[in-house]
Amino acid sequence: MRFLSSSVGRKVLMAITGFFMLFFVTVHLLGNSSIFIGPGALNTYAEKLHSLGPLVWIFRGFMFLMLAVHVFFGIMLTLENSAANPSKYAIGRKLKATFASETMIWTGVLLLSFLVYHLLQFTVRVTPDIMPDAVANRPGDVYKMVLGSFRITTISLVYVAAMATLFLHLSHGIQSLFQTVGCSNDKTLPKVTMVGKLVSALFLVGYSAIPVLILAGILKN
Amino acid sequence: MILDGKCPTGPVEKSWDKHRFDMKLVNPANKRKYKILVVGTGLAGASAAASLGELGYNVEAFCYQDSPRRAHSIAAQGGINAAKNYPNDGDSILRLYYDTIKGGDFRSREQDVWRLAQVSNEIIDQCVAQGVPFARDYAGYLDNRSFGGAQVSRTFYARGQTGQQLLLGAYSALSRQIRLKTVKMFPRTEMLDLVLVDGEAKGITIRDLVTGEIRVHAGDAVLLCTGGYANVFNLSTNARGCSVTAIWKAYRKGAFFANPCYTQIHPTCIPQAGDYQSKLTLMSESLRNDGRIWVPKNKGEKRAANDIPEDDRDYYLERKYPSFGNLAPRDISSRAAKEACDDGRGVGPGGKGVYLDFRDSIKRLGEHVIRERYGNLFEMYERITGEDGYKVPMRIYPASHYAMGGLWVDYNLMSNIPGLFVLGEANFSVHGANRLGASALMQGLADGYFVIPYTVAPYLAASKPGKAKEDHPECKKSIEDVKAFTKKLLSINGKETPADFMRKLGNVTWNNVGMGRSKESLTEALAKIPGIREEFWKNLKVSGTELEVNQQLENAGRTIDFIEFADLLCRDALNRDESCGAHFRVEHQFADGEAKRDDANFSYVAAWGFKGDGVPPELHKEPLEFNLIKPAVRSYK
Amino acid sequence: MSGHSEHNTKTLKLIVWRQAGPDKPGRFETYTAKNITDHHSFLEMLDVVNEDLIKEGKEPIVFDHDCREGICGVCSQVVNGVPHGGHERTTVCQLHMRLFKDGDSIYIEPWRARAFPIIKDLMVDRGALDRIIQAGGYTSAHTGGSPDANAIPIPRHDAEYSMDAAECIGCGACVAGCPNGAAMLFTGAKVSQFAALPQGQVEAAERVANMLKEMQDCGFGNCTNHYECEAACPKGINVKFIARLNREYLKSLL
Predict the structure, then answer these.
(1) Mean pLDDT, rounded, for B81-86
(2) How confident is the model at residue B148 (pLDDT cuts 50, 70, 90)?
(3) Which pLDDT belongs to residue A139?
(4) Do B551 and C62 touch (CB under 8 A)?
(5) C-beta atoms of C141 and B175 within 8 A
(6) Nearest residue of A to residue C81 by CA position?
(7) C244: closest chain A residue by CA
(8) Subunits with at least 3 CB pairs below 8 A relative to chain C?
């Protein structure tokens, strides 16, 4: 309990939960990338995942827990922090803080809402773009489902925007993770920061490639 | 009156050990019944409060700053001496004692100096145990450097921030005691009166600098650790808040003021730039280890420093004092700089400066070595002057820096008022007429950690605890006096600010009682000071009220104390019709300009007693004896 | 030879936060600083303004200042939105007017953070920093009886690292600059100073836990790794000491 009430303890929880979600985002990107191999590959990947049965649910439960802890303490720390610094300066000049570091709570909230939408869309499959096609015809054809949705420009744009948000969140978050768990010093911090930004950019490019290539008509049936 | 320092008798080398054994002790169970009031939380005050709290006394500590960590000890840069002899270069307690006595030009009390040298080693052990990150060599052992006035390397240092690190060490020890509730800390309070009950110091009256409340704290003993009075020159290297006020109030209550004329001028300060200047910045004289001091040989030299060829440079310290060279003691280097400037060979704006040149050291050791040793000082110099000391020689000039004089104390650090102890720079005891570099930190910590914990006991053991309470008539009277004084300052409503008066006073003190003093200059100053005082009471302007933060009111109080004190300073300088150490009477010098002491007539401590406003103070003498070494002409050639 | 221009003076517009007391409302007031040269320090410029105010019968601006050489750590002004004015390794007392141009407008504000209540104008109460030190910023070394200073060699690198941390002057710029009003750099520096030394080991776990708890109790915020503290620090204390604090905290749990 001392850990949960400690400023650093809670931050370490943010870091650890963030780390697992970072891990998830990485695995998810690798899975998604099977789309570039061909329709079969993505569908086989999806089937493989579903065949794991209870393991999938355990994993989902774990990730939900990570998310819940991350969101809960994220909001709490933000509220505490704004209470600790109630009045601002007349001129808000910043020397080192970045747009990304200052907007963590907002990129976080946006990502959370995107996640809900994303789950409703591709996991629960109840959004209007999926509903008719998915339910009526071929429930197992993930490839077709994805293709169908991303051909709608708005959906693709929302997706790319969400990935840009993820980029911002992680470009601060990755180095922050290392700093918070104490794996950082004056020599490594600049490098970790740079690598963190690169990785975040990789996510942005990797994830966004799918809707962009579909919209561009390069990925097709 | 002939004063007695109550020093232990017998061989000097055994004096402190003998005295420690002879002193009475306070029963551990009784210690908490005694309340000790510690005023000032610099090296002396913080270490005293922490050590006394640790012993079990009930301590209350006061400082005018917002935190005890900010006392001006923090600004000492160079280092702290100790006779550890780690470099194996021939140091010993005897040598440190000898250097200190000789540096003080045989005007300090021998037993006090011996004690200082003896406990110096314990100080280093203590500080290391506290986690003070002293500089170390590659083998992990403590590093030493040499310092002005010594031919051995005995100075321990923490980059250019030794004072800061030692103070933070003492502050952390004090913080620990505050946590343990043995010490109660009152920051942002200023002592404005000393309360005497039956002739003994039993309380202080303070002003809370935030609320303006004036109240008494009663106790069983009062320790003044309030630093020196170098700001009497207006521009000095001291912090703006450093004042003579606490010890001056004690003087006005009967404490003797000893040797006020011993004021030290520091040779390596950044020259003044204009009238608006609020303070002078000191650069550690450790710079003199690697910098060479020179002025152009020709008067009115117009070339830039780097364009002046070797043949046209006068390395005057190396020329005049070949064995000490650039490390000649502070007073000698300061006067030599002034002489060069008076000779029309000064450099920089107004010709008030000499060069401190690192060209040769950089050539010999490389810039990185110099950067490692003094990087922060070069940065500081560039921030203030806008010049790069690695490329062009620095310009330096002497500035008032330290007060060797202070309240008179006996061997137990107790003044002539029973129960009033005075520690650190605020007392007069060990530095004589001149202090050696890196000895101030040593003295502050020696007094606080290793002297007062023992020497306060005999007084306390002989007195009943809790003799005076806050409701004692003397306490009430003191509050009324301070309130009346404060009201008086606020009621004048004239036209000039405290700063105006400090500038006026500084003009007189710096020009007439600064580096060189003469009968004429001192008589002139004594004629001028009453005028300043009179004008102060007629024409002072302080805005605001007393029941709030009022920095002008604080300044006004300190200013009038300085004006009154300046008079005593001049009287003492006039009385001491000899030259010794930093006190240089131009009438008394050898043909080569060295100070000429008069041991037959002036081998005494001049302790002045207050006789009332407008009445000349009374002179008391404490004769000085030297048993271990005999006074000799101080020569640094 | 110094190349300084003695005759060029500047006039500046100062927009200064005035507040009569902790619970009183504050507001900005505008003043003009005249006849300022390159050699005036920032505080000397304020001295000039204050002298004029006093002579006009107005209340001078209250600000903390003492050593005026950048080491006591008492000066505390946010200049144009940045603590100490934002020049590398410079406290506001060492800020020189050569860095400003004639006609510049300068906003001057006090440190702002919940843990630092304003006392008056630009003066704040930083007692919270003292309380953090009181919670554990020391080794419990008794006076006297310490082993010889050279008894335990300390690798030079460790001593230097410790000194890097110990340089903190406790001014609170890190808190004032932090968007969260956190005191992690201050606390981290003190924890790291002792963590690097053999003398600090015995109490290491207790120290970090107590200091962190006190930090929270004083009302400071949490670190979110903006590193504004490092940028604002007039002594250049590195944020690696915050990482060290975090590490020491985790070690203390074991």
Answers:
(1) 96
(2) low
(3) 57
(4) yes
(5) no
(6) A91
(7) A182
(8) A, B
What structural domains and CATH numbers belong to chain A? 7-84+99-215 (1.20.1300.10)
Q: Which residue of C has its CA nearest to A179?
A: C243
Answer yes or no: do B70 and C66 touch at CB < 8 A.
yes
- Residues within 8 A of C (CB atoms), A 126-165 only: none
Tell me whether C124 touches chain A (CB under 8 Å). Answer: no
From A94's Cα to the closest Cα of chain C, the distance in A is 7
Q: Which residues in chain A are contacts of C238 at CB distance < 8 A?
A: 186
pLDDT in tens, A141-176: 888 889 989 999 999 999 999 999 999 999 999 999
Distance CA A153, CA A142 (A): 19
Say if the Cβ atoms of C153 and B140 lie within 8 Å. Answer: yes
What's residue B470's pLDDT? Answer: 95
CA dist B54 and C143 (Å) reads 8
pLDDT, mean of residues B480-494: 97
Task: Give the CATH number for residue B515.
Answer: 1.20.58.100
Does B484 lie in the same domain as B436? no
Q: Please report all neighbours of B, defined by 3+ CB atom pairs within 8 A.
A: C
Do residues B297 and B434 both lie within one domain?
Answer: no
- pLDDT tens digits, one per residue of A103-142: 999 999 999 999 999 999 988 888 888 766 555 555 568 8
Are B527 and B456 members of one domain?
A: no
Q: Is B606 exposed, middle or buried (0-12, 13-18, 19+ CB in 10 A)?
A: buried
Q: How far is C55 from chain A (nearest CA, A)?
A: 29
State in words which class domain C126-139+154-253 has: mainly alpha
H-state helical runs in A38-181: 39-51, 54-84, 99-102, 104-118, 131-136, 142-150, 153-180
Number of C-beta neighbours around residue C111 at 10 A: 24
> Measured between alpha carbons, how far is B294 from B593 in angstroms, rounded to an integer?
18
- From the list A77, A81, A89, which residue is nearest C78 (CB)? A89
Tell me the average pLDDT across B476-503.
Answer: 97
**For residue B123, pLDDT beyond 70:** yes
Residues of C in contact with B240 (CB under 8 A): 65-68
Rounded to an integer, what distance in angstroms lies between the CA atom of residue B562 and that of residue B336? 28
Which residues are CB-neighbours of C69 under 8 A, at least 6 positions away?
Answer: B75, B237, B279, B281, B282, B380, C93, C94
| Over residues B83-104, mean pLDDT | 95
Statement to judge: residues B66 and B202 lie in one domain: yes
Q: What gap in Å lies between CA B620 and CA B129, rounded to an integer?
A: 42
Sheet strands side by side (includes B292-296): B263-269, B394-403, B354-357, B292-296, B313-314
In chain C, which residues fall in CATH 3.10.20.30? 10-119
Residue C3's pLDDT band, with cuts at 50, 70 and 90, is: very low
Fold observed for domain C10-119 = Ubiquitin-like (UB roll) (3.10.20)
| Min distance C186 CA to chain B CA atoms (Å) | 14
The C-alpha angle B198, B201, B206, rounded to 5 degrees, equals 125
Q: CA of A93 to nearest chain C CA: how many angstroms apart?
A: 5
Closest-CA distance, C63 to chain A, in angstroms, reads 17
Question: C46, C138, C199: best mutation site toward chain B, by most B Cβ within 10 Å?
Answer: C138
Q: Do C221 and A84 touch (CB under 8 A)?
A: yes
Do B479 and B447 lie in one domain? The reply is: no
Instruction: Answer whether 0.80 is exceeded by the pTM.
Output: yes
Does residue B629 lie in a domain region?
Answer: no
* Arithmetic mean of pLDDT over chain A: 92
Q: Is the complex ipTM more than 0.90?
A: yes
List the single residue in C with minimal CA-CA distance to B303: C1
Residue ranges making up the domain that contains B582: 474-603
| Spatial separation of the C-alpha atoms in residues C205 and C162, rounded to whole Å | 17
- In which region does residue B517 sit, left (phi positive, over 0), alpha (psi from -120 to 50) or beta (all else)? beta
Whether the pLDDT of residue B289 is over 60: the answer is yes
